[in-house]
Amino acid sequence: MAMAYQQKLAEKLTILNDRGTGVLLRMNYIKKTCLDPKLRPQYLTDKTMEASVKYINKKFPNIDFRGNSQYLVGIQKHKSEVMAAMSSYYDSFIDVMEFRDHVYELLNTIDACQCFFNIAVNFDFTKNYLELIITYISVIVMLSRVEDKKVLVGMYNCAHEMSNGSSDPAYPRLAQMFMEYEQPIKKLTEEFGPHTKGVTEALLSLQMLYPRRNLPAEQWRSAQLLSLLSAPASMLDPACCDTMACEYLSLEVMERWILLGYLLCHSSLNTNQSSQELWKMALRSGLYLTIIRDETINIHKITEDYFDGLKGYSKRIADIKECREHVIVNSGAMHRERRGFLRNALKELVKVLEDEPGLLGPKVLFVFMALSFSRDEVLWLVRYSENIPKTKTPEDYVDSQMAELLFYMERLRTLMTKYSRVVQRYHVQYLAQFDALLLNDTMQNMYVCPEEESVLMTSFVSTLSALTIKQVENGEEFDFRALRLDWLRLQAYTSVSKAPLSLKEYPDLAKVMNMTQFHTKMLDNVQEMLHETSDLSILCFYPRVFEKMFSQSSEEVSMQRYLMSFPLACSHFNQTVHPLCPEETEAVEKRSLRLCVTFLEEIAKQTSSVILEICSEQCNLNDQLLPKHCGQTISAARNKKQKKQTPKKGDVQREKPGTESQRKDRAIVTNMDKLHLTLTELCSSFSGSSDFTVFNHIVTPAEFLISHLETRLTKIIVRMAHYNQTTQEIGRPSDLLAGIRAYTASLHTLSRYLSLDVTRLVKNVLLQQTQPLDSYGGQTITTLYTNWYLEGLLRQASSNLIVHCPAMHCFVNQTIENEQSFRAEEYSDISEMQALAELIGPYGLKFLSENLMWHITSQVGELKKLVIENMDVLVQMRANFDKPEAMANLQKRLPAGENVLKRMTIIGVILSFRAMAQDTLEDIMQKHCPYLMGPIESLRDMVSPDTDIKVTLTVFELASAAGLNCDIDPALVAALASMRTDNSSVDEEYKLTCLLLVYIAVSLPILALDPNSYYSRHYGGHHNNIHCLATAINQLSAAMFTVESKNIEQHLKEFLLVASSTLLQLGQNVENRVDGKNRDSIYLLLHMIVEASPFLSQDMLESCFPYVLLRNAYREVYKNYIITLG
């Protein structure tokens, strides 16, 4: 007994199991690294090392460092680098050797102590013992699969000898280990010969547990396994049994224990019938066993190959073949049925526990059983998806409903986490008021209780008795790890041969303590329990299988509500890393995030497609209600009233809007019904989890949907504009606005399905459309409409094919033979311009203005060139404008007057269009933010001529951005100011501006020669757009004189004098046969200039131009129009 105390079996088992897992992961990591060309150590792929690698592989382990130095030149040159690169691999193999030594020592000690094993009694001791054996076997098998181990160790040792003059001390033993395990199974069976008795005893303790757990779905169903509703009267009774921990022990783990254990201790298969039956039952469960992650072994093949070389095992080989046939025929269907049962069982369990979470207290065992059973089935399917046997029913190895099982597993995990306080409150009372008392009674009934064991059990009772519900209410953290380790120690002390207190003689003590241990885990270790029973991190290492499962589930409409379980499963993957192998953490993290993002992107893509398809259909229905489609209905009603001929039978009658909602039969399912059903299913998946964590990254699924909707909606809006750069065609702004409103209204119905900030989504998309480029660098409707209005509308207006019509506040087509491809008024009337302002907003109109200003500055640049060419004549004309004879002579010397007026007209057309856009922007701003517009208007009105020009321009810039008209256009001022070069002086620019106004004034009479210069009352302007000169002269002069800091009013008066004088001479010149109507139309232009100017007045005009001429001119141009009333 003293030996059991001193050997610390419990502590060694615990430490070695954890250490073994780390060593196993390192072997797996080394294998994967050496097989991956991208990760493979560079010295194994380096051409200069090729000879060294071949030589070491050939001569290992006896490598001659001196006699064949020519093969090792590469290592000699880079010995320190080779040592550094290979040291981690070498140390890992040393870890394997040390682990092997410690396992040997511990197993021998356990044999010497003649320990007793029974999974139902000393559960933890037996489990740790079997786990250590299986981990050790797995490490050795993985070691044998590292093909480059000899090269890695040999290169390190060569570099070590070259650097230090001697081999590494551990090299001989390490090399010997490699040679011994060339055939790992054979060597392992030799090693485990002495341990056969202990291993067989431990495995035979599973003969009551494993058959009970390995049942077909029919028996589960008949026993109503996992059902809380099967016995309503006992629903509140605690779920407990004699073997609590065994109930959620992994079936896969037990099969691994049995098959690998009996492979190494095979002699008992011929001598013990129970062992043989247990082994055959495990063989019938499957062909493959997991070594670690995606590393598997075909246990049937390995066992058969090994037994084939042994005498007296022919019957066992026959058993293996029989079991293999059984697996191939029955295994797939059996597991398919199990998954089907578990889906329904978990669904019922989740629904009950969601409704009554208080049942998590007494029935928490059911949760862990359900998770463990489900996890085993998921892992089985994953394992066999890559290793499907030749069978007539391969569909048994495919499950398109896996999403549902994963979903309910996640829901159970979520419920356990959410209601952990409920579980704690129940079990803290259970421990203090039942377990402690029962354990105390059990102790009192024991005949023998040595001091060490007595101290441990007394501490158990005192620890449990001290628990109160207040600790839970106060949020205290519980920690029972010491108690559980003490129980493991007690199992070790009482399981050795000749122990004063033998645990197998006191099974009641084992039952009580096993139950108590489970209850303590409910207080401090729920997350670890969830990891133990439902860890799905193996999916990280089967990415193809995982993605295929997702793809199959996403194709099933009924499974779409469960799709979020796939990205949620990625949150398990951080549990697969180990401190002994930190190098792989980054790779696992990247793979986990990649899988998670892939799934979420696909779910979001599917959802957004359905949403936008519904929106598109709603947009089409909304389009049918637009006024442009009512013509046919009105015509039909009119014909009916006038009793005109009805349409022929061949003519197809257009359906009225709303007929799509009329149904004769409820069973008829329309496309919209299917879309809404699919949307409901997909949105359910999003509503299940607002966010979760994958490797410290917080993932919010709804953001993926918003991102997809934003991207696709942006493209749809641009596509809805129907812009064709080749033919210069584009949709009307009002039509696009109606479409966007229909889409927005449909998107807002998403709030019925899930909590999504649709307002933010729509604002983001529409705000991007007010910029020249969206967030992905694509063109927006701002760019499209800016290009179209400049190239399609204003370019034709510059050629007089389209006329600006002040009377109707729009542009109209000229009635000429060449019919335009579009009607200008359909794109420029008030409603269309308001729609444009709604669509692109102040930002978009600012971009439009900047483009307009660029065209204006290019025209101003050409005008300045004309002024410079004719500067001498213009200077003389400015001085002699009131001398008719001199002006007549100078006029003959002044060319290009038509060019000047043409360019000024273009500027006027552009500024008139901008003014229309600004007016509609003001209307929209007043509609959307009237409380903002009031202060801006007040600020603008406070500006006076005495205000500092910088302040004035700043205020005007604000006002202009809100769509308000300003005396001085700040955008035009900025554009003209940017034209100035370092070489030009202010005085020169000022002189050019003054002469430009003279040039314009003296050229006005030329307009009378153009037959299109007549004024149209219908248009409220001239047929060749010269009425736009009023806007051009006023705004351009105001901006130019502002840039030059000169008095605007004074120079406009001068312009008025020159223009009046020139136009009066037009009337007095008898020789010049000008059409009287055109002359009168030109006179009106002077009146328009004054009317449009904030700096000129009618008094100023009358002082230099007789009002009677204007009155007569208006009478002449209007008298040809017949006015009708009524």
From TrEMBL:
GO terms (BP aspect): cell migration; cell projection assembly; cortical actin cytoskeleton organization; neuron projection morphogenesis
Biased composition (Basic and acidic residues): 648-665
Pfam families linked to this entry: Nckap1
GO cellular component annotations of the record: SCAR complex
InterPro entries listed in its UniProt record: Nck-associated_protein-1
Residue ranges, annotated region (Disordered): 636-665
Compositional bias per record (Basic residues), positions renumbered to this chain: 638-647
Name of the protein in its database record: NCK associated protein 1 like
Organism taxonomic ancestry: Eukaryota, Metazoa, Chordata, Craniata, Vertebrata
